[in-house]
Amino acid sequence: MRILLFTGKGGVGKSTVAAGTAALAAARGLRTLVLSTDAAHSLADAFGVEVGAEPTRVAPGLHVQQVDAQLRFEQSWAEIQGYLLSVLDVAGVDRVAAEELAVLPGAEEVLALLELRVHALSGEWDVIVVDCAPTAETLRLLALPEALGWYMERVFPVERRIVKALRPVLSRAAGVPMPTDTVFDALQRLHDELDEVHALLTGPESSVRVVLTPESVVLAEARRSLTMLSLFGYRVDGVVVNRIFPDAEADEWRAGWVRAQRSVLAEVRESFAGVPLWRSLYRAGEPMGVDALRELADEVYDGSDPLAVPAGRGPFTVSRTAAGPVLGLSLPHASLDDVDLARHGDELVVTVGSYRRLLTLPPGLARHRVAAARVQDGVLQVRFEEETA
Ligand SMILES: Nc1ncnc2c1ncn2[C@@H]1O[C@H](COP(=O)(O)OP(=O)(O)OP(=O)(O)O)[C@@H](O)[C@H]1O
Ligand SMILES: [Mg+2]
Question: What is the value of pTM for the model shown?
Fold first, then answer.
């Protein structure tokens, strides 16, 4: 099963390209689902049909779904939220304020991605295309379970046992309700399921495509998301430059745009060196409906296979060298000055600008110390040495 994610700045054409790619896959006879986790229901508008919160058939082999993020949020978070509300109530926090506090910002979007897990497990699809919300931040949040790994494995079960044993005493003494088993269950389940989704999306059959328009501001953001996506283990296997002005007989206004776009296009090529670059012209109208969307995608991929599984190594590698094992982490556009490394138990904490990832080291490296680090050709290389006692 192939999973393709489309991300990019607001309004650049993510939904259009995602829908078109899905239409291409379905036309090949593959059972295809395209889903959006965005509250703005633009997939339905692009296909020009009514689409519900369940997969809706829009063409042979092609289904569309707009995940009801609010509903998923309530389902996954209800138990935990209920507990938080009871604590806040005892703490004297006003009910309305408490309800606001018990909602995690950005969580809806992440929880909507849980839908992906259900579909992946169902075995009903050959291709799943995800039309992401206008920022890649969501994908970063999926690494949360990994960051909590140490806590969830070591501290959480202990805490759970202690609370269970002392619940009656503690509740009476502190006057604060102690979380019940169902709250712990809900937390554990949420953690495990999010972890599975992250594993699915960073797996060998998944990849992310960045959609952009040839404008400096858009490119700047795309460059940042390339670094961020790589840091969190996602593999970017294509860039779609959308809404390129056709270079024809032009008045001064259009000629100006053509020139400006051409120069940004050159920068895009440089910024995404090594990643296939696909293009799509600015059409005279909005591409709507299955046929128009498929035509656009046909132009985008221009004969190359839109479903090709990305070749080469993933963003995270470990190789043995004479000087010791070297961990490689693809970090395009980062220099060693931007990167900060720290060791925390069997985890390596990699900070790049405002992003931080806790990488659980493979067992072979857990008892090694960091000997040296450098960034070469967009890859962070960390050399390890056996710990000498
Ligand atoms: N190549 C193109 N030529 C002409 N119009 C286009 C092209 N690509 C997209 N559009 C139009 O641009 C608008 C925005 O596209 P789309 O909804 O796909 O962007 P998006 O990145 O998904 O936006 P959002 O961030 O709001 O989700 C739509 O009206 C769409 O029909
Ligand atoms: Mg969209």
Answer: 0.87
